[in-house]
């Protein structure tokens, strides 16, 4: 861990829109993947195909990520749902 002075004053987390990743990966006409030949018969061609696929997935995931402040409640639930959860938790804590 770094020193307190190196910590960010606004820590963030990355969230990924997985439906966007799925949609992008389902695209058939992708130039970076079209460059992979059908004739993969050497280790260099295998390495090249793996690199192309890995880079494509990395780019697709990166394009569907966003940074969210750690303090934000980006998954906030409605107040009535939160109250119901609290009630359930409290009841479970005090059950014999």
Automatic annotation (TrEMBL):
It comes from the Eukaryota. This is Uncharacterized protein. It comes from Eumeta variegata. The lineage of its organism: Eukaryota, Metazoa, Ecdysozoa, Arthropoda, Hexapoda.
């Amino acid at each position: 861990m770094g020193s307190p002075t190196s910590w960010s004053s606004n820590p963030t987390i990355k969230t990924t829109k997985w439906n966007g990743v799925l949609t992008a990966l389902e695209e058939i006409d992708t130039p970076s993947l079209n460059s992979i030949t059908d004739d993969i018969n050497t280790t260099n061609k295998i390495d090249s195909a793996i690199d192309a696929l890995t880079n494509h997935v990395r780019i697709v995931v990166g394009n569907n990520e966003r940074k969210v402040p750690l303090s934000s409640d980006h998954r906030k639930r409605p107040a009535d749902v939160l109250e119901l959860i609290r009630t359930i938790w409290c009841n479970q804590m005090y059950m014999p």
